[in-house]
């Protein structure tokens, strides 16, 4: 993560949440439910959420038509605009019926980000849930594999 000069002033605040430089992701794939879950976890950083999504879509393009859950409750790097455009293009190539992406977040700004994503993604609804229990209520099928 690139640190701006003002970063040093706020670093003590972020240390209460965990070290943002040490974030990476874990992934679960349910073939039966046609769902992918990517969660930000505290571990030595290997890739961001956006990088994880792009890697999975490159390896298995059909995942672009599945439902996705992105658990971003832990501190994480936000995807830059160029990366969002790449992700949207990869999803749009594979989404032929309505699919969902649910962001698990307690950050109120996530709702605004989801509204902005709608214009970039075809046949994909972006939702926000506070926890995994709410994800289960939002998505059409039970998420028993989590």
Could you name the key traits of this structure?
single chain, 146 residues, alpha/beta, Transcription Regulator spoIIAA, five-stranded mixed sheet, 5 strands, disordered N terminus, disordered C terminus
- The termini sit apart by 30 Å
Radius of gyration: 15 Å
Main sheet summary: 5 strands, mixed
What is the average of the pLDDT values? 79
The proportion of strand residues reads: 15-25%
Supply the number of helical segments: 5
Number of strands: 5
CATH class: Alpha Beta
Instruction: Return the CATH architecture.
Output: 2-Layer Sandwich
Secondary-structure element string: HEEHEHEHEH
Backbone structural class: alpha/beta
> Which residues form runs of ≥5 with pLDDT under 50?
1-23, 142-146
Classify the helix fraction into a percent range.
Answer: 25-40%
- The total number of structural domains is 1
Q: Remind me, CATH topology? A: Transcription Regulator spoIIAA
Q: What strand line-up does the widest sheet have?
A: 1-2-3-4-5
General form: globular
